Here is the input.
Amino acid sequence: MAVACGNSTPSSHVAQPAPAVVQYNWGPTSADVERARSLISGWDSDRLAGQLIVGRFKGTDPAVAADLVRRLHLAGMSVQGSNVTDAAQVRALTKAITDAEHADGRDFPPIIGVDQEGGTVEHLRGIATEFPPFAAAGATIEADPVTGPKVVQEAARTLGLELRDFGFTWVFAPDADVTIGPGDVTIGTRSASRNADTASKAVSAAITGYHDAGIVGTPKHFPGHGSATTDSHVSLPNISKSMDQLRNVDLKPFESAIQAGANAVMVGHLNVQAVAPGMPSTLAPEIYNLLRDDLKFEGVVLTDSMGMGAVMKRDQPEVSALLAGADLVLMPADPAIAHTAIKAAIDSGKLPKEQVIDKVAKVIALQMWQQRVADEKAIPADISTQAARAASALEW
Here is the structure.
């Protein structure tokens, strides 16, 4: 006699519950990462290599930037002051980059980032609202430890919303360095404070504000550029602090940023004697291990501009940075040359393909997060007025 199946199922065929979705501290969920991995499952080395690069371009023509993004499959673009002319041109530029990525078959937002810290580093000067340098955030917190962090958070929120209104998805800020004062020739007032605790509070507030705006914030320049007495744009600075000094001062703002849910961290070009003597930190596995293992950061790690004097003359520095632990390389001196080198490293196995897929999936998952949060955070019609009010509320 035949056995009726009814509702009984052999135990070996019992449907297993779907894995629980994990919410990562750095923004995306495990489902975002898995979706990203699925999207790239058929990608060749040409496309994978491009998604590891945030490029640069010369001039102000949006078509030039769009062509690079589409042709090299770049993750996106860093927009410099030399790339912009006025508000209409900025919007045309960010739209062209976005359209180029979508035309390349990618349905998630590109990385369109800008150094818009306030003060001396504002690449949209005269176009977006001008904010005082980040030192004003530290001064505001020291003037009123209770309400100060809220003022800083509001400044970051409105700055982030205004950037989104121009089409940006990332801001390369806040500066998480702890300055030593006049001897610090590169950072100076870009740092919130000489006091590590004040700087930590300012960085944490800024990260929260950027998240509230639906934009990716990027604390920089790990593990701390504030005590460098030479400019990494020109040469490799030496950081001679002990490990204890780094932990008690320089690493504190980065720890606060991570606790606040930082999505990404930018590594600076520094010769950190206590961690990786003689090696630029962007190329040193020990630096990435410090960030990942000691500070427990699981998000996207990107380099400072690879076109800076501290590293650009080295052989294939972008490949070295990715091998060391970076997920993204920022602004190679020549994006096409960097793309060729990274593709060749993937094809040869020098850059293991599974590691590359892990990096690319993480970056794409973060862009999915950015899109989702941005969709929930409407940009007010008076955002420029709000930003101006928030800027004037900072102590300076």
In short: The CA atoms of residues 254 and 350 lie 31 Å apart. Residues 353-376 form the longest helix (24 residues). The chain is about 45% helix and 10% strand. The first strand starts at residue 53 and ends at 55.
